[in-house]
Amino acid sequence: ICTQSSTTHILTQSSSTTQIHTQSSTTQICTQSSTTHILTQSSSTTQIHTQSSTTQIVHSPDSLLFRFRWYCQSITRSEAEQLLRKEAKEGGFVVRESSQQGCYTVSVFTKALGHYQIKLDDSGSFYLCEKHIFTSIPELIEYHNHNAAGLVTRLRYAVGPMGRCVPATAGFSSEKWEIDPSELTVMKELGSGQFGVVRLGKWRALCKVAIKTINEGAMHEEDFIEEAKIMMRLCHPKLVQLYGVCTRQRPMCIVTEFMENGCLLNYLRQNGGTAGQTWLLSVCQDTCEAMQYLETHHFIHRDLAARNCLVSDKNVVKVCDFGMTRYVLDNQYTSSTGSKFPVKWSPPEVLHYNKYSSKSDVWSFGVLMWEVFTEGKMPFDGRSNVDVVDEITRGHRLYRPHKASNDVYQLMYQCWHERPQGRPSFSELLDSIRLLAELAD
């Protein structure tokens, strides 16, 4: 008797036919190794005619897949390509029946359309990349929503059988995040960049806020929304807090708490020479507390640097800019080939293999500590990215800043271990920084 959840399958076998008498209508089919299973089904009995003497029952949740928007059962490869091209969204995808009977294919849109057959191992588990194996196809899709892990891009937007990507705002936890634009008063511009503008504003005429909007055509709205979704899941006193979003008008905007003293990098440079050891260590401690929270909750920031931290009017430092942040299930994220990343803040496994983890954030944190104790200098100043990759690969590391004690520098240096497993965790770093802060007092 084989039992899966509440369904009981009772097997009887003759030389060429195996019968499965089942109390539910769920049919489980697929092809494993070289054994071919051909199924016929009546209301209560499923027959598997097999060409070998061994019957293998492989789990394929076909009846469950219909619940998911991304499942397009019987479309062909060319029809899938037509659907994806019509939507033309980077990371748009469908799951369809493969031309190989009993198997499934993931088709994904990027500059070059990709098709990946979902494979089974000997235990009946599913995978696209052998390192990442799952007991069901929905679990596999969920993982690759967050991780490219060998694919040309993440599976970002489900395209249904009739087209239609899942709306960008789908997944917002509730209407409480939506802010009425009429409640916002826009004041002066605080800064601008390649993708958008940040302005000072007031919410309901009382609370000072930062309003971040995107430049038209500068990035996909879905990417902008992705950052907001990440922020909705984060709550820590050393992370810049999301207040809400405006998604029902264009340009869309993200509304966050306002930090009076602005960007940490600029603050360090403007106050160079006046900061003492105690405050410099407190900057590192504030940042490390934020990163310990992200580490504990399975988020990888991927762009930790002084430029992506803000300073409050009380000189408290908070981590911000979650545009590259990813939620991971196994503490590892492999980005798509060609993805941009900050070379001078990146460890060898990112430089060579695009592999991110909390330990790659630890490396970046070591560089941030170096920025803090040099009061805002550029790491590897005067060297090209190519030269930096070469130096890091050959074992060269940043020098000890004048304001950093030997103990502080040793902590930085531990963050720059060649192997991720040789670096401390953020919890360990936080304990060390607190001890150094006590000694500094």
UniProtKB/TrEMBL annotation:
It is an enzyme of class 2 (transferase). Residues 70-159 form the SH2 domain. PANTHER family: TYROSINE-PROTEIN KINASE (PTHR24418). It catalyses: L-tyrosyl-[protein] + ATP = O-phospho-L-tyrosyl-[protein] + ADP + H(+). Pfam families: PK_Tyr_Ser-Thr, SH2. The lineage of its organism: Eukaryota, Metazoa, Chordata, Craniata, Vertebrata. It comes from Salmo trutta. SUPFAM superfamilies: Protein kinase-like (PK-like), SH2 domain. ATP binds at K212, R307. Its EC number is 2.7.10.2. Keywords: ATP-binding, Kinase, Lipoprotein, Magnesium, Metal-binding, Myristate, Nucleotide-binding, Phosphoprotein, SH2 domain, Transferase, Tyrosine-protein kinase. Mg(2+) binds at N308, D321. Belongs to the protein kinase superfamily. Tyr protein kinase family. This is Tyrosine-protein kinase.
